[in-house]
Amino acid sequence: MDAILEVLAYFTNMRFVLMVFSGAVSGLLVGAIPGLTVSMATALLVSVTYTWAAQDALAMVMGVYVVGVFSGALSAILLNIPGAPASVVTTLDGYPLARQGRAREALRYATWYSLIGSLFGILMLWALARPISAFALRFQPMDYFLLALFGLTMVGALTATSFKRGLVSACLGLVVSMVGLDSVLGTPRLTFGIQQLTAGIHIVPVLIGLFGFSEVLMVLGGQQDEGEMARMLKSLIKTREVLKHWAVSLYFSLIGLLVGALPGAGAPVASFLAYGSAKKLIKKPSAPFGEGAVEGIVASESANNACIGGAMIPMLTLAIPGDAVTAIMLSVFYVHGLRPGPLFIRQSPELFHSIIAAGLLACVFLLLLGLFVAPRIARLITLPRRVLMPLVAVLCAVGAFAGNNRLFDVGVMLVFGVLGFVMRRRHYPVAPMTLAIVLGRMMDEHFRRAVSLALPEENFVMALFGRPITLALLALVLIVLLSKLPWVRKRFKK
To answer: CA end-to-end span of the chain, whole Å?
Structure first.
């Protein structure tokens, strides 16, 4: 009961509510415009909010995250161009509905079921975070190393068409994370004599470059498509008719929650799985799937928004991000001197409750903005992105400079922007690299600590891997790696 009262207390804090609302509006605008992703907006926010109080920063980030994932459905429905990867599946039925003049109806379905998915995810985060944290207290240094390694292998497996490319991206991120002073010996590593690299490569300009400036280069390089606006006819849609699918949407939300909790899986995977389940589960859809079935929107939007709570569960309890946005959110914690992990909820219950409150408030604003504002700003998403990109480029430069007030970070941002552009052109995923940069130093510290503790023991191997949790995590890593070997895959196909 005390926890509920603490969460509800934030609803009366007008400063906190305003921060969430500002983030929600920003998420609506950014997520709706193809090319301006939630990941990019969150990366820019890290640089803007680093001097703020931690609660204010987290409140705005949660507003951007929750509403930004939903708003990708706007351009998916109206332009047939998903505003975010999470909304790819929404285009399959959303755009056909819009072409029939039922765009407003499609947006109404997307709004309500994004709300249901988001609420389900946030409430499950609230319910499950504490027991998972209690279990995580039993983890040893080698367990954390293997858990992070499992996260990287999962990212490589699920975010790339080629598993090798995913691993290459992750290994590149690990190299970047090693730059700076050695955490044990205190000697410089990979600095090449550059004094500014002694303290390591700051995460903010790296994220802004990979997610922000690379997007500018993608647009300038003609790698993004323009779209044609569908008709937005006025129509009367009863809320009771829209909500008749609420029960089955909880099943799709559960899929989103479970997939979101897998490091690297994320909303695109969840929405595809939910859509496939909907085609098998719903025998009599309102229209054939792919031709304007509202059930397709229900499945996609419920699942991809439930991923929000799912992705935050491992991020808060184990310091293992569930997707690219929570990897960037992890850097928000680090910038403010916070350490997510098994002790986070016990040591900082007020911050945990502020995250839950911000998520619930963002759900309220999602409903209001989705019902009353989204249809009116729909024309904004047809603005040429070549007009928007110069502004984004300026924001990237300012955000990179603001972190440490040095031009060197702007140079770092430009380098990683070009690197992100090249990787995306060559179909190398950026998400594994992002996750590896965030987790790399932690992996290094835990692995070396585990080896140091095991060296004095008589049986070195048993000291490292002789615990049930360690063996289970090692088995998971090996299963993922072995399942990608060509001869293993051929054997299973046979």
So the answer is: 55
